[in-house]
Amino acid sequence: MKLKKNLTKCALVLLLAGQITTPLNTYAGEQEQQELYEIIQEINQKNSNLDAPRNSMDQFRYNFKNNKSKLTQNDTSIMWKDYSRKNIKKNISVVTAKKETKWLFRLLRSQYGLYTYYGSDAKFIKAKKKILKEIGTKGNITTKKYQKILHKNLGFITDCHLAIVEELFVADARLFSDESVHYIKNNGYFYKEENQQDAIISINNKKPDTYLKHAINENDGLSYYPYAMLEQKGNSRKFNVKYQSGKSEYITLEPAIYSYNKNIKRLYGYDKYDKLAYVEMNQAYMDWDTPKERKRFLKDIPNMKKQDCLVFDLRNNTGGDGSLIDTWFKRYTGQKLLPNYSTLRIRPVFISNKKELKEMDVFAAQTGMKKDGKYYYSQHPGHQYLKNNGRHIFVLTSRHTSSAAESMTDALKNIENTVTIGTNTGGVLINMANYSMAMPYSGLLLQFGTCLQNFDPSYFKESYGIEPDIYLTGKNLDQRLKKFFQTYISGLI
Predict the structure, then answer these.
(1) What does the DSSP 8-state code read for residue 206?
(2) CA distance 37 to 283
(3) What is residue 283's predicted lDDT score, i.e. its pLDDT?
(4) Where in the chain is the domain with CATH 3.90.226.10?
(5) Is the pLDDT of residue 3 over 60?
(6) How many angstroms separate the CA atoms of 428 and 407, rounded?
(7) Which CATH fold topology does 48-55+263-434+449-488 show?
(8) 3 state DSSP class of 75
(9) Rounded distance, CA 459 to CA 468, Å?
């Protein structure tokens, strides 16, 4: 398979947030070039099939015409108390706690975007009854105990943007791996590197490629290692590996290590090295309160388009303003972004200002959503996979890559020759944190969102995140990543 023209000396600078200054002058070997080229073709095939679910979002709408209690005008009048930890009461009467609980469930029924997704009235009414019972009948209750009761009984929800006093409703999903043995793939079969005669037929009674993933090994080359996102307390998990010969053995997966240089010196950085650009995006660089960074990011897009190789470092980015992604995408590709999820968002009932509601309607329309009664929706944005004119994009991710940074990761997968390297992202996309407020009587912070972003679960699952194309875990990550780029990227295109 003939490789494309040479990538001019891909610089090494990219990997340590601007700390390396020596350009790469060594070209990759033909074998390594070919290996990565074939992996990229495999990734392109996979990404070209990504799409939002086509099933109707109507199943997630709530029937607001029923007689169930909803937010009243009085309910909305007590919502917007300023939150401060100092204002959280130590104790409240059980009568007041029950009053606030009923208010909370009216709010969830009326405005929580995942209310129907997580079982609607059947689930939530049952949870409310348990909470009211556990609060008790007499005297006072500490707000700490009250908070625990709320959180325990709403534990059927997995939503990383829902929180009570910053305690999230998150499944305890962790990335497990075993890097003690190298695996290879040959003619569609997996083998241990040291035993290429006995093919693996299953791991944990599933197809081998369920767990065996592309990874940068400790020698800075490419191997296959077993990886699994598991909801497990404890430090290890044994998987049974069966071979064609009838032999079987157990491998032990342990929590993956993915520590790297976290010395954040800038929110945003753009470094250009010959035909490569390194784009560093840290923490809340997308927020409205960082106007200089936003302006610089958008100003740099014409230069990004000129580069053969573009690297986005999102490893320290926990999110921010997601609307900036749409702007970047349109300016980089010339096309409107069609994300790989459908959206259903409840129109707020607690906003009476007609001007503000109209502005929300306009914003929804600009993002491709239609208004239908009490909802905004995007049933199916449309399939999208765009050519990249021979250019390559590499996205560096970690479990810290969350929310808007995950949306950026998703958006980039709609562009040809995009490769993600690192670990699963944070898994914070099924909803948004639209609103934060102090609960009216206890003062406890409540954070919630009004939308449902519906993904194909094989692609994205809340708390599990978006899987990388090439895993990088273990020790000395920055150094290994640097050598990987030196060996494999130079000369690719």
Answers:
(1) B
(2) 32
(3) 63
(4) 48-55+263-434+449-488
(5) no
(6) 9
(7) 2-enoyl-CoA Hydratase; Chain A, domain 1 (3.90.226)
(8) helix
(9) 11
